[in-house]
């Protein structure tokens, strides 16, 4: 049974899952369409046992204003030789990422060859899709109503797909995983005191909500002048200078490290008491997986499906609504007032949960989905 994956790029975090899936479906092929954007998307990884074909692609760069008050820049990849490539490959099952031109062409192939099947991987959430207008609604309804199966990252994605025309009995939730086995095996000393060293890892752009979180930390530190808080920021982007120049009290130290090599991240995770992920809109957030694998409780936004799917509020981390300063203040206070003994228990719960979400686990979920549509 020939399986073809249609996606923009095979990034580092997807390579391990794809390699596991390829063992179940020898001869698997991936069609990528990122073209010149591959380097910006963490590279286009070669995977042993998987044939890779680059599609001819036009890239359209757009910037959208989100209803929650921030702007998003994103790139639309429009491959224009999908159908002829599929004709040459004659796949039994197509696993098509997202709901654009690539998936539309795969659906045309599906309608022409009735014995073929299509699974749509809808990497989205209710919040990420609020930036888009109604122009896409018709296309998405057409695609989702005809998909043999739709895979989403979490319950927010499932709700969106259901409202957009998908069928309840054809929606499957599969989380994202990264190859974090080496992180779960690394020892980390959990301090026997409340959390005082906070860590953020990610791009420094508006939608990540770092500036709003920093303002929240300022308020907390002003109300607790005897407590010293260290906030380490790893990453780069247009918000870096705003974060660096933000006024703060003497008991709040902010250290911006910029981009660091992936291999150096464990040292930063080891030096932190907890991870913060204050995103305003994210389909997932793999840094949450990584932090939990290292035994870091996560103070995270409910706008991230990684937070709502992986973290149990008050058990392995804390949830908050980033659009509510009061809710953010309350969550930050809960996290920073948590005793060292409780933090140690939460660290173990976080690590235990991360051990469950492996590339092998996710690959099995996709394998089950593929076998389900071919019964």
SSE diagram, text form:
Blueprint lengths: L2 E5 L4 H13 L4 E4 L18 E4 L2 E9 L5 E9 L2 H8 L3 E5 L3 H12 L4 E6 L14 H10 L2 E4 L2 H9 L7 E3 L7 H4 L12 E5 L8 H14 L5 E6 L5 H6 L6 E7 L6 H6 L3 E4 L8 H8 L4 E4 L3 H6 L6 E4 L4 H13 L2 H17 L2 H15 L2
Parallel strand pairs: 1-2, 1-6, 2-3, 6-7, 7-8, 8-9, 10-11, 10-13, 11-12, 13-14, 14-15
Antiparallel strand pairs: 4-5
Give a structural overview.
Helix content is 38%, strand content 21%. The protein is an alpha/beta fold and 375 residues long. The chain folds into two domains: 191 residues, Rossmann fold (3-Layer(aba) Sandwich); 176 residues, Glycogen Phosphorylase B (Rossmann fold, 3-Layer(aba) Sandwich). α5 links the parallel β8 and β9.
The biggest beta sheet reads:
7 strands, parallel
Give the strand order of the largest sheet, numbering strands 1, 2, ... along the chain. Answer: 3-2-1-6-7-8-9
> Can you give the mean pLDDT?
92
- Under CATH, the topology of the largest domain is which? Rossmann fold
What structural category do the secondary elements indicate?
Answer: alpha/beta
Q: Provide the gyration radius in Å.
A: 21 Å
**Overall geometric form:** globular
């Amino acid at each position: 049974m020939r399986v073809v994956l249609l996606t923009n790029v095979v990034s580092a975090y997807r390579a391990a899952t794809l390699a596991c899936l390829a063992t179940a479906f020898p001869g698997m092929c991936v069609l990528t369409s990122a073209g010149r954007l591959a380097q910006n998307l963490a590279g286009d990884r070669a995977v042993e046992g998987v044939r890779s074909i680059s599609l001819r692609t036009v890239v359209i760069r757009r910037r959208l204003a989100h209803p929650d008050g921030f702007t998003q820049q994103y790139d639309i990849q429009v491959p224009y030789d999908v159908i002829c490539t599929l004709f040459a490959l004659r796949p039994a099952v197509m696993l098509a990422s997202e709901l654009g031109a690539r998936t539309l062409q795969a659906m045309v192939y599906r309608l022409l060859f009735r014995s073929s099947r299509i699974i749509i991987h809808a990497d989205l959430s209710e919040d990420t899709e609020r930036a888009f207008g109604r122009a896409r609604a018709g296309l998405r309804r057409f695609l989702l109503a005809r998909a043999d199966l739709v895979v989403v990252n979490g319950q927010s994605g499932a709700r969106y797909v259901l409202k957009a025309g998908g069928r309840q009995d054809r929606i499957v939730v599969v989380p994202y995983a990264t190859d974090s086995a080496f992180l779960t095996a690394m020892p980390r000393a959990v301090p026997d005191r409340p959390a005082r060293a906070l860590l953020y890892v990610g791009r420094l752009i508006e939608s990540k909500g770092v500036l709003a979180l920093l303002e929240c930390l300022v308020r907390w530190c002003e109300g607790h002048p005897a407590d010293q808080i260290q906030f380490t920021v790893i990453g780069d982007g247009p918000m870096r200078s705003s974060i660096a120049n933000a006024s703060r009290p003497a008991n709040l130290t902010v250290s911006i490290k910029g981009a660091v090599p992936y291999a150096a991240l464990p040292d930063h995770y080891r030096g932190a008491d907890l991870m913060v992920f204050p995103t305003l809109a994210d389909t997932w957030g793999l840094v949450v997986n990584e932090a939990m694998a290292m035994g870091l409780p996560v103070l995270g936004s409910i706008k991230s499906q990684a937070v709502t799917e992986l973290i149990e509020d008050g058990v392995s981390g804390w949830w908050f609504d980033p659009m509510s300063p009061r809710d953010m203040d309350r969550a930050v206070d809960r996290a920073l007032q948590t005793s060292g003994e409780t933090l140690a228990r939460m660290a173990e719960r976080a690590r235990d949960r991360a051990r469950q979400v492996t590339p092998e686990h996710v690959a099995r979920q996709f394998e089950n989905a593929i076998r389900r549509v071919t019964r």
